Amino acid sequence: MPLPWFRRKQEQAPAPQAAAPTPPTDVTTAPAAAGGESTADPTRPKRRRGTRGGKGRKKSATASAATSATEAAPPKAERKKQPERAEKKEEVRSQRRERRANQPRRRPPQKRPPLPPAKRELLVSTDVSEQRVAILEDDRVAEVYLERPERRSIAGNIYLGTVDNVLPGMEAAFVEIGLEKNGFLYVDEIVVPELEGKGHGRKIQDLIKRGEQVLVQAVKDPMKSKGARLTTEISLPGRFVVYVPFGEGLGVSRRLDDDERARLKEIVKALKVKEGGVIVRTAAEGASAEDVERDLVFLQKLWKSIQDQAKASKPPSLVYQESELPLRVTRDLFTGDFERALIDDDTAYKRVVGYLKKTSPHMVEKVIRYKEKTPLFESFGVDAEIKSTLDRRVNLPSGGYLIFDYAEAFTVIDVNTGRFVGSRSKSSGARLEDTITKNNLEAVKEVVRQLRLRDIGGIIVIDFIDMANPSNRQTVEDALRNELERDRTKTYVVEISPLGLVEMTRQNVTDGPREILTKKCSTCGGDGIVVSEATAAVDLERKLRALAAAKPRTKAFRIEVSARAGSILIGPGASRLDQIEASTKRRFLLELKDGLHSDHFAVLEEGTLEKLAPKGPVEEGAELELKLVEVGLYDPNAAVAKLDGLAVIVASAAKLVGKTVNARVNRVLDGTAYATMLGEPTVDAPITAEREAEKPTRASRAKVASEKHVAEAKPEPAVAAVEGVEAEAEHEPEAAAEPELDQAAEDGAETPAPKKKTRRGTRGGRRRRKSGTAGAA
User: Containing domain of residue 121, as a range?
Assistant: First the structure.
């Protein structure tokens, strides 16, 4: 048997000269197969057969013996390599750890250049029923805060509550704090002082029990169907620092530079706070050690008062309430980079000035009492901006626009080019990609501004226009991250996708202006859509049919419906109502009322037509001459005529307003009649597949015979004159029979009908006569 070419080539190849002789090994081979095949050549490489396996596969006793016999013991040098490598790796790691320990902790350098400083102003407007605060940046409204007495924010309030339910499956508990809905307390927000820190990695049933009294702080307002978000890690904000009674350590705002951070750290370390943690705020920039100490001491005294109040209260109760909106915004936002603060109310002005005198005396001169006649927010255009937060569309300067859609899970912002088409010059080398990128970059600034103005939180998806070039996508993403530096609210941005989508989150603490200014629609329930009048008319028709089927003995009904839906139900000239009454064999006397919901349906009276029929100046079927005075209110194709207080609606007469027409009254209802014009030219209906399919494929014999008889009785004169001579020559018997027919007509006898022509041909039915030849066959 010849060997394959690859094996033959391997055998013919000369052996390598430098190959060392292989020591002989005793290999136990398996017996040959029963088919008479010879054992394999020991020099030929064996083919692997059977199940595959890795390093840990089980080997048979024979295979393991063969392996142990063939493999030679590795030299000692190779066995020592692995421990040496491990020692070297451990030495390198230890050196890295030492270098990291010796290096000082530093913040990562800024990847983006800082934003240029903006002109910032604070506006405070106080009314009896509402307090409003606006922040202006470069004379444009950047942020707006609204608060009403009946809807005041609870973020920052401290409550003494009772644990209502503990849910191990959700690792959370619900705490009753005296509000409409219980607050939500997550396991990681539970601080147990004796266990040092938050409850990370511990079971909630081991940290808190049902019925237990807990002191909690609201960190997020109740929103929609969710209750307030709670925490047991209390934090008391001041002007310069935030005191955390159950916390530990020291933190400084990252918005400050390194030198100022180091100075403030030394100031707080010198205070030697024994209990609790301290966080230095951005407003502490430039503050002296006395200012920081005075602020911290005040917060420590406030915490002791809260503890005493909690011991004397019974749950659920409010132990500590946050300051009002003007004072809260002044404390948190009014820093040294503001040029001024304008306040239009005396009480709010005195409170703000009094607070700043104690905390930041150098900021008092920036607070101004506004006394102009024009309202403060109207003078600076804030009122218009607040109303614009309810708009779905926001226009961009170059002609593009943004669309905001609010959903339960997230908010979607769609970017569109609109009227922006880029450069119109023929000489410019602008491309579509450049136009799209420019529009997206313009949209970035307005998107960030609207996020702050509308205070949109949660998950946000921005649908930028698709960009094919990855570098352009990166440019837009960098611009978005750069603009978000102005937003003091915590945000997280995911990189832009090839489809132009940007996913981001923004911390949601309180309701924005949209939630405060609006409520759910009582008709649609917040869905944003209502049933159309045409759909309501279809439902009314079905209700009429169901009413007729439920009461077979009643012949007439008087029903109240909406004017808009009822007009569609009646149809032009009451044509639709006639069809409904013809199919149900009932009379429906509809009363159309304005102001009713489109699906309103009320049966007012039942009985006979004589009893319920309305009385008016005209009767059904009357033909009148009417002067059309106006277009129909609910049917723009109809016109209205007035007749003794009765409104007569004439179908398809809107173009004839001001003229006089003849019309027939088809239906008279209470106060309204429906009519159609007389002598209106009919328009041939268009050809449809259904009508063509209904036509017969072959005319009937009677129709063919009648058409032929009419054609013979009335021949065309021209044809008779031309063919007269030929007809005389060819049909002499018929010509001879004509005098007999004339004579019979003169005697008064009826003219016999022409005989039907017998069909001749080879085809026939069952009763056809057969020829003798065919019958014999």
Answer: 116-155+322-388
* Cα distances (Å, whole numbers) of residue 131 to 147, 342, 486: 5, 14, 24
- Compute how many other C-beta atoms are within 10 angstroms of the C-beta atom of residue 535: 14
Placement of tokens 């309701």 in the chain:
511
Q: Using the 8-state DSSP alphabet, how is residue 151 labeled?
A: B
Degrees to nearest 5, angle at CA 115 with 113 and 117: 140
Is 178 in contact with 318 (CB distance < 8 Å)? yes
Q: Which of 677, 694, 709 is the last residue of a domain?
A: 677
Q: Amino acid identity of 704?
A: V
Specify the amino acid at residue 605: E
Structure tokens at 685: 């209906």
Question: Where does 49-139 show beta strands of DSSP type E?
Answer: 120-126, 131-137
Rounded CA separation 265/250 (Å): 8
CATH number, domain containing residue 125:
3.30.420
Q: What DSSP element (H or E) covers 28?
A: none
pLDDT of residue 729: 45
What pLDDT was estimated at residue 528? 80
Could you write out the three-class secondary structure of 207-228? HCCCCCEEEEEEEECCECCECC
Question: How far is residue 359's CA from residue 290's CA, in Å, rounded to a whole number?
Answer: 10
* Per-residue burial over 727-742, b = 16 or more CB atoms within 10 Å of its CB, e = otherwise: eeeeeeeeeeeeeeee
Check residue 197 and give left, alpha or beta (phi > 0: left; psi -120 to 50: alpha).
left
| Distance, CA of 314 to CA of 162 (rounded, Å) | 10
Q: 660 - beta bridge partners?
A: 627
Indicate the pTM of the whole model: 0.67
Lowest mean per-residue pLDDT among 327-336, 603-612, 757-766: 757-766
End residue of a domain, out of 517, 545, 573: 517
Structure token pair of residue 285: 């920039």
> Which tokens in the block code for residue 708?
């032929």
Q: Is the dihedral of CA 543, 544, 550, 556 positive or negative?
A: positive
- How many other CB atoms are there within 10 angstroms of residue 273's CB atom? 16
Q: Order across the sheet with 587-593: list the strands.
A: 587-593, 556-562, 601-607
708 pLDDT band, cuts 50/70/90, is low
- What CA–CA distance (Å, rounded) separates 252 from 250? 7
For the record, the structure tokens of 602 come out as 């009320």
Q: Is 206 left (phi over 0), alpha (psi -120 to 50) or beta?
A: alpha
**Residues, the chain, total?**
777
Phi, psi of 407 (to 5 degrees): -120, 170
Residues 665 and 544 in one domain: yes
Question: Does residue 342 sit within a domain?
Answer: yes
Coil/strand/helix, residue 3 = coil
Radius of gyration of the chain (CA): 48
What b/e sequence results for 404-427 when a residue is b if at least 16 CB atoms lie within 10 Å of its CB, and e otherwise?
beeeeeebbbbbbbeebebeeeee
User: Which of 400, 403, 407 lies closest to 392, judged by CA?
Assistant: 403
Local structure of 479: helix, strand or coil = helix
Beta strands at 338-343 and 367-369: parallel, antiparallel or unpaired: parallel
Secondary structure element (H or E) that encloses residue 301, with its range: helix 289-312
Comparing CA positions, the residue from 429, 430, 428, 432 lying closest to residue 440 is 432
